[in-house]
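We treat protein structure as text, and this decision shapes the records that our systems exchange. Because each token names a local backbone shape, the row as a whole describes the fold. For reference, a complete record is included directly beneath this paragraph.
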Amino acid sequence: MTGCEGEKTLVIIEGNLPIKTSTLYMVGDATPNGWSSR
């Protein structure tokens, strides 16, 4: 569940940036490679 919290943190940090940018960051962080590494 820590991964979920991490994504939420990123959203808050990137809150100043446009929503689209935040979404792109989330998608990039949620890539299968990242999960596989964990």
Observations:
- The mean pLDDT is 56.
- Residues 3 and 38 are 9 Å apart (CA to CA).
